[in-house]
């Protein structure tokens, strides 16, 4: 029976060695995975640190140096009137109204109050009324 016991011991030793080897391979894979995960975490932290650097510096600057400085000026209503353009448009409107009212004809200054053709059917206003009403 000693031969059978010897074969059983050899078989047990072989199985134990195989299981130990499998366990060591699993441990080695876990260590490799942990190392790779640590590398990826470091890459992510470096990326975030570089991405946020300018924003962090701005926040530090605004919080320290310019903490109490005003961030917006006084609000005012801008003056959008251009006196030159107002004069030009007023002159153009006055000339147009006067030209229709008094009939420009061949001359720019064709005012002739004695002639009824100046108030004739020139298509101005409603019902040939020069005042538009």
Q: Beta-strand level of the residues, as a percent range? A: under 5%
Report the total helices.
Answer: 2
Helix-strand topology string: HH
- Helix residue percentage: 55-70%
Unreliable stretches: 114-121
**Rg, Cα atoms, Å:** 49 Å
What structural class is derived from the secondary structure elements? mainly alpha
Q: Biggest sheet, in brief?
A: none
Write up what this structure looks like.
With 133 residues, the chain is an all-alpha fold. It has 2 domains: 1-67; 84-119. 62% of the residues lie in helices and 0% in strands. It has 2 helices and no strands. The longest helix is centred in the N-terminal third of the chain and has 63 residues, at 2-64. The N and C termini lie far apart (134 Å). The model is unreliable at 114-121 (pLDDT under 50).
């Amino acid at each position: 029976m000693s031969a059978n016991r010897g074969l059983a011991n050899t078989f047990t030793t072989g199985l134990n060695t195989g299981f130990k080897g499998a366990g060591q391979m699993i441990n080695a894979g876990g260590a490799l995975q942990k190392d790779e995960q640590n590398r990826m975490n470091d890459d992510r932290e470096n990326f975030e640190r570089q991405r946020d650097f300018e924003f962090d510096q701005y926040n530090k600057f605004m919080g320290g140096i310019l903490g109490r400085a005003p961030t917006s000026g006084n609000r005012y209503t801008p003056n959008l009137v251009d006196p030159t353009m107002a004069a030009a448009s007023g002159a153009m409107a006055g000339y147009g109204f006067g030209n229709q009212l008094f009939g420009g004809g061949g001359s720019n200054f064709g005012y002739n109050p004695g002639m009824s053709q100046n108030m004739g059917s020139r298509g101005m206003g409603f019902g040939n009324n020069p005042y538009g009403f």
